[in-house]
Amino acid sequence: MTRTADAGVGARAPECAHLRAAATGGMDAHAHAHHDGHDHAHDHGHDHAHATSTRALRWALVLTAVLLVAEVVGGIVSNSLALLADAGHMLTDVGALGLSLFVAWFSRQPSSPSKTYGYLRWEILAAFLNGAALLLISALIVWEAIGRFRSPEPLAAGTMLGVAIAGLAVNVASAWMLHGSAHTSLNVRGAYLHVLGDLLGSVGTVAAALIVRSTGWLAADPLVSILTTVLIVRGAWRLVHESVDVLLEGVPPHISLAAVRGRLESVVGVESVHDLHVWSVTSGLVAMSAHAVVPELERQQPALEAMHAAMAELGIRHVTVQLERQTIEPCAPPV
Q1: Taking Cα atoms as reference points, which of 130, 125, 147, 244 lies closest to residue 197?
Q2: Are 138 and 39 in contact, with CB atoms under 8 Å apart?
Q3: Is the Transferase keyword given for this protein (predicted)?
């Protein structure tokens, strides 16, 4: 998906008479061909990863929906807040997994004249919504747990334990299926965090059931709910933060802007680089645009190819470089 350099500025606007310098043109074909093989291989791998993550999301959704029904019934019968809290997470999981599955399909729709990047950002929006939903559910569970501390209610620990163990098994299976794709997709990571939260909730519910059953200490139920929620909030906040960072087109955390500038300016023939921008379009797709001053005409084509190669080594696939023979000063804003 690497883009060729916007290698020239063909015309000068009358109001920008102070601009000094011309850029060259006609370099697109060679620079684009240089990356065709790499992009084809990358796209093939991306398609395979997409199919794998979609299949994992589908199976996790089915398992979670079945378990949701079991936990709601079990929570009502046993009067367990920990179990109902876990069921609450399960409900958000069903929505999160369904949303992630839909987005995984919808984001693959082709681009259009009005959506030139396609619908890739839907993945980031889904991740943000999943993270926000987790934070909201966590707040509600803490509120309910505080009430249970003040007024403890009797529990059917045996029923609570049986359903919690079944939930733990399903959550382990779902988390295992989603774990691999969670490293490469914010969308899948959002769903994975939901499932991981339920897994922690199931572990906590099993522990609470055992404590209540052996000691009769009813406060174990709301206490476990709060401890589980604290762990979930940490991951949810990180997901929201990363999603917002992508939506605001911040520099990806694994890329150093100084390193990008250094690599570009180290290319033979490049005098300086300005108007440098690096951002993520979606998970795994990093873009870069820059203006590079290359005074000598005969060095521009080799410099362009070298800059594309340097960015590929840094994992930046979508590259746009405007070549200039001297720095083009920006036009003054209209008065």
Answers
A1: 130
A2: no
A3: no
Distances (CA, A) of 205 to 22, 44, 311: 69, 43, 49
Question: What does the alpha-carbon distance between residue 247 and residue 245 come to, in Å, rounded to a whole number?
Answer: 6
* Model pLDDT for residues 97-143, shown as the tens digit of each residue: 887 788 777 777 888 888 887 888 888 888 898 889 888 888 988 88
> pTM (2 decimals)?
0.67
Dihedral (CA of 104, 110, 111, 115) sign: negative
Buried b (16+ CB within 10 A) or exposed e, 260-270: bbebbeebebb
3-state class of 266 per DSSP?
A: coil
Alpha carbons 175 and 18: distance in angstroms, whole number: 60
Q: 219: which 2 tokens?
A: 């406060």
Contact between residue 277 and residue 290 where contact means Cβ atoms under 8 Å apart: yes
Cβ neighbours around 169 below 10 Å, total = 13
Taking each helix axis as running N to C, give the angle between helix 186-215 and helix 81-106, from 0 to 180 degrees, rounded to the nearest 10: 170
Distance CA 94, CA 82 (A): 18
